[in-house]
Each structure stands twice: as C-alpha cells, then as structure tokens.
Amino acid sequence: MKRQYYIAGRILEISADFEPEISDKIEQFKTEGNKPDFTICFEKTDHLSHPQTPNISNDYDSRISAHEESDGIVQVFHEGLCGEMFAKAYLDYEGCRETICYLERGLRQFQKMEQLFGWIGIDNIYAGLETVILHAALIDVSGEGILFMGPSGAGKSTRADLWRQYAGAEIINGDRAFVNRDSCGIWKAYGSPYAGSSGYYVNKNVPIRAVMSVKRGGEDEISIQRMAGTKAFREVYRNVTVHQWNAYAVNTVSSVIKDMISAIPIYEMICPPDIRAVENVRKELGMDR
C-alpha cells in the first residue's frame, strides 16, 4: 500500500505492506503523483527490543511512551495503558521520514486508516514542516478565515455554528485546524481530518483574518480584547498540540507562533453564545464597513 495525502499544503506519503480499511474523512485529503514532503513507512519485524530508558513523556495516560535511546528519541506503541509493546516509531526530521516497525500481533492496530492516522504522531511530523496544529474551530467568511480556539467545552464549535447561522460562514474544521505560511508568505489555516466530534473536516484553506481565544464569562458579559507579545504567545501556545519531550518540535512550534502573532491579530473573546458573538466580532474586525 502506498498512499499520499495533501494536508495543510504538504504531501504525506504512507507506505506499508498491508491495506488498511479506508475512511471517507481521510480519503477527502487523498492525492497522488506528487513528491512527498514527508514519508511514513511501516515495516514488519519479528523482534523489538524493549526500551532500556525511562518514559520521558508527561502523558502517562497515553498508549504511546517516549524514550531517549542511543539513536535518538523513540516512541513505543502499547496495547492499552502500560500494555504490551507492539511497535516502535523512529522519527528522522533531517530525512523527512518516520519509520514504524511493528510486530505481527500489532497489525490489528492499523486495520483502519483512521486508526493509522491516530498512531503516526501527526503533531510531531507537522512541527518538522513548520506547521502548528491549533485546537480551534475554523470558519470561512467571504474568503477569510477566523479561528475560535480553546480547550474542549470552551464553546469554539458553538461560535462557529453561530457564524454559519447568522453570517453564512462555512465551517471548515470543528476541532483541529492547521496553520502555516504558504510559499508566498501568506498565513493560512487549513481543514484537517482531525475533526473531533464536530463532523466538520473540509479539505480547504483560507488566509487568516483573526484568531479568537474563547473564554467563558457572565450571562451578559461581552469583551473582545486584542492580545500581543507574551500574552498572545502563551494563549496560542497553550492551544497548540505539541509534546514537551520533543525539544525539536517545541522549538520549531515556538518559532512559528512568534512569527504568527506578529502577523495575525489574536484576541481574547468573552461573549454569550448568541448572535452578539457574531455582531461584536464583525464590529471589532471592521467587517461591516
């Protein structure tokens, strides 16, 4: 199996000696006949050595642990929390390649393309491609993108739905939007196959007009304040998917965010989830002129 996917302006090529069940969500991003920007290769093996170093990941509830070995940081895939090891992933940023060596019994973990995309570590891969993955809903308003970022339950999807209802906006992605600069230096946001429970995952990109950090407030509390400098950086960084154990990814993502906040307006938004959440943003961004 060899498949290519066009995600956030980059070509991912996945090769394996098995055929996972395709997913309509992910197939929307399928392409072919291109030179890949990054390659993920699955290789079957009869033996995997157990890591001799401690888990350096802070996410101890994950089925993936990270270990610093002699040949670099290796990710180990487990069957369940602290379960048996069934694969190891080696990430080579210089070679733009990830090699995932798996045991025969681990093949069932990759039977569906959606499962496979959950294991490959897309956040680590795209950090190497100078792209950040923002925990945000993305809408297209007359050819411009607005991102509503925040943790689960903050109301970002609700804001996106309000714009669809009252302003005719198109919801491109409901949970994970990718952000980078294109070849012309334009900051763009992209839909991705990672939609959470929202059901919105359109393969489309738009230049970014603004980023709104959604905060909860009182019943009638309304405030839209532009952030800058350290405050803006921290707000964006806390909503970016990045593993703290991966120093290369952290440094690259931090650099991208610094450039991003100097070029794109970042706001803190407090507003009840009704039409005012649309009207006040439109006014702040001068979209009614």
Can you walk through the features of this model?
The chain is an alpha+beta fold. 23% of the residues lie in helices and 34% in strands. It has seven helices and 16 strands. The chain has helices spanning 24-27, 113-119, 122-128, 156-167, 229-237, 247-263, 276-285; strands at 2-7, 10-15, 30-31, 38-44, 64-69, 72-78, 85-92, 97-102, 132-141, 144-149, 170-173, 176-181, 187-190, 205-215, 223-227, 266-270. The strands form two sheets. An eight-stranded mixed β-sheet has the order 3-1-2-4-8-7-6-5, with no helix packed on it. A five-stranded mixed barrel has the order 9-10-14-13-12. A hairpin with a 4-residue loop joins β7 (85-92) and β8. α5 packs across α6 (247-263). The longest helix has 17 residues, at 247-263. The protein is globular and about 65 Å long. The termini are far apart. 40% of the residues are buried.
